[in-house]
Write a structure and sequence with these properties.
Distance between the termini of chain A: 35 Å
Radius of gyration of chain A: 15 Å
Order of helices and strands of chain B: EHEHEEEHHHHHHEEHEEEEEEEHHH
Strand content of chain B: 15-25%
Structural class of chain B: alpha+beta
CATH architecture of the largest domain in chain A: Roll
Oligomer: heterodimer
CATH class of the largest domain in chain A: Alpha Beta
Strand content of chain A: 5-15%
Largest sheet of chain B: 5 strands, antiparallel
CATH architecture of the largest domain in chain B: 2-Layer Sandwich
CATH topology of the largest domain in chain B: Uridine Diphospho-n-acetylenolpyruvylglucosamine Reductase, domain 3
CATH topology of the largest domain in chain A: Ubiquitin-like (UB roll)
Shape of chain B: globular
Radius of gyration of chain B: 19 Å
Strand order of the largest sheet of chain B: 4-5-10-6-7
Number of helices of chain B: 12
Shape of chain A: globular
Chain lengths: 158, 289
């Protein structure tokens, strides 16, 4: 089936099988391999991408359902020259080890801080309940996101 | 962990959608947010010939609050309920319970109709439909019919809607301002399905006696239930902690709880009792939150 999407500010048209999920489409067809596939049934959060600005699990959405939508993956959240505010904060707080879950955490945190730049630690922990990390532990991740709030607050809540 | 092959259609009206369901003679599934359906497809617990996506049908994502009650369109998402400006006043128990549904990312896609149709006995929305005396409007080839929540859920993942029917709205009766209510659930990890959950509400008369008592339970057995025996025993009584505790423990003893790798029967029964007592204790000081 024919599909038109805007992904990381590129317009893309493709023919996809209806059963292809959005995560596999992004990785295998478009080559944006930053989106990771962990559990494939909506538990781990590693495949989180932004659909029209909202954090969504790309393993629980069909590629064809994204027809006409605006998608941003982890690749769309920074450029090659410079780390984003969240990436810098994650590095500063050692909020990653193996890095498998990190794209999911960053896309989720980006959606949260864009919509709620003044959120408190409880809210951050509540939102992060949908993302699993098996090596770093959550304390540095929460700290990194708390620390990155100032950047989003200065954007004026977009 | 990949689904089988299927066709996909995006009809623009309910009539068109129902025609497709009929053409595929019962081997079609409806998809909206897909937050329960996609895992079922990926596990190959389901292998439909076609998915019928409701995304292009207008009017299914509306929330209406009026003097006659609240109507939620089947495509209303959890995040829509969360962000609605007046729903927390119009349906406080609903909003409190919905805050326990799944995780942030799932809440951006998951829908009210999807949760009802999926009918997981541990999910919040089916339990809320039961305890709030909801009715569910479903449309089929012969038009719209209204189903009481108690007649809607048959058993685990099974409802009384036919393969050619689509949930259109869920209707919640008008909520009195000074009504008492509470909601409590336990899950090992925030956002997971509840191991036990209880919603209670009641009104209080001028003598301080509770009436209209509703106790709804999720996370046990085949479907969400009402603890009607306890409701009857507490009706028109002046509620106190010891009275509620006696009645609840007594009534839960008559209900069978499952034992599985997560918890045994006794643990689950005492957890449920704790959830009910928590919900009542919240209710004793909820005044129009």
């Amino acid at each position: 089936m024919h599909l038109k999407i805007n992904i990381n500010s590129q317009f893309i048209e493709a023919d996809v099988a209806p059963r292809l999920n959005l995560a596999d489409f992004i990785r295998h067809e478009l080559g944006f391999t930053g989106t990771h596939v962990g559990c494939e049934h909506g538990v781990c959060g590693a495949c989180t991408v932004l659909v029209n600005g909202e954090a969504v699990r790309s393993c629980l959405m069909l590629a064809i359902q994204a027809n006409g939508q605006k998608i941003i993956t982890i690749e769309g959240l920074s450029n090659d020259e410079q780390l984003s505010a969240l990436q810098m904060s994650f590095r500063k707080h050692n909020a990653l080890q193996c890095g498998f879950c990190t794209p999911g955490f960053i896309t989720t945190a980006h959606a949260l801080l864009t919509n709620e730049p003044n959120c408190d630690e409880n809210r951050i922990r509540d939102v992060l309940s949908g993302n699993l990390c098996r090596c770093t532990g959550y304390v540095p991740i929460v700290q990194a996101i708390l620390d990155a709030r100032i950047h989003y607050q200065n954007l004026g809540g977009e | 962990m990949k689904s089988t092959e299927f066709d996909y259609a995006v009809p623009h009206s309910l009539e068109e959608a129902i025609k497709i369901l009929q053409n595929y003679a019962g081997n079609a599934k409806i998809i909206s947010g897909g937050q329960s359906l996609m895992p079922m497809l990926n596990y190959r617990l389901l292998s439909p010939d076609i998915l019928v996506d409701l995304q292009a049908i207008s009017g299914l994502n509306e929330i209406t609050v009026s003097q006659s009650g609240t109507t939620l369109g089947s495509r209303v998402r959890w995040v829509d309920i969360e962000k609605h400006s007046s729903l927390h006043l119009a349906q406080p128990l609903l909003c409190s319970a919905i805050s326990h549904v799944a995780h942030y990312q799932i809440r951006n896609r998951g829908t009210v109709g999807g949760s009802l149709a999926h009918a997981d006995p541990a999910a919040e929305m089916p339990g809320l439909a039961m305890v709030l005396d909801a009715t569910i409007d479903v449309m089929g080839p012969e038009g719209i019919r209204t189903v009481q929540a108690k007649d809607f859920f048959l058993s685990q993942l099974s409802t009384s809607i036919s393969p050619y029917e689509i949930i259109v709205t869920v209707n919640l009766p008008f909520w009195l301002n000074d009504r008492k209510w509470g909601f409590s659930e336990f899950s090992r990890r925030k956002g997971d399905y509840a191991m036990a959950g209880a919603a209670v509400w009641f009104d209080v008369n001028s003598h301080g006696e509770a009436f209209n008592i509703h106790i709804g339970l999720i996370g046990l057995g085949e479907k969400p239930i009402r603890l009607s025996q306890a409701e009857g025993k507490l009706e028109n009584k002046s509620l106190s902690q010891p009275l509620i505790e006696d009645v609840v423990i007594d009534c839960l003893a008559n209900i069978s709880f499952q034992s599985d790798m997560n918890a045994n029967e006794n643990y689950r029964r005492s957890l449920m009792s704790e959830m009910i007592l928590n919900a009542f204790s919240q209710a004793s000081f909820t005044v129009n939150k």
